[in-house]
């Protein structure tokens, strides 16, 4: 009985661990960071985001912020209440579910006039290599002489 539980546990680890280990951390805007007058759509277009990946928004504290918004707020640069802002200057967001995600800067007219906004599509879990098959004890063979 205990051996079946161990095998089940090992199977779960073999399936879950590679997808967690394969998560990618993206610095939004790469070396430019989260700033104005940057084409974040061009930055994102060659990337494939998966559940478990992380977005890191880096910027000088007090100069910018990050809001997660819906599609309409993104299109109109509608800023949510200030208490919903991320403001650390090194904000990490883990992508927890698949689908469209939208982020804007809520400082002044950074979103509407300077294009400080990002829209991405998140896919399911990262593809991981198939786990190695678990071998069962060898079946004894009868040898013929």
From TrEMBL:
Top-level taxon: Eukaryota
UniProt-recorded Gene Ontology molecular function terms:
electron transfer activity; metal ion binding
> Its GO CC terms?
plasma membrane
Q: Where is the Phytocyanin domain?
A: 24-124
**Cited CDD domains:** Phytocyanin
State the compartments where it is located. Membrane
Protein's GO biological process = response to symbiotic fungus
**InterPro entries assigned:** Cupredoxin, Phytocyanin-like, Phytocyanin_dom
> Which keywords does this Swiss-Prot/TrEMBL entry list?
Copper, Disulfide bond, Electron transport, Glycoprotein, Membrane, Metal-binding, Signal, Transmembrane, Transmembrane helix, Transport
Leader sequence range is: 1-23
Protein name, per record: Phytocyanin domain
Organism of origin:
Dillenia turbinata
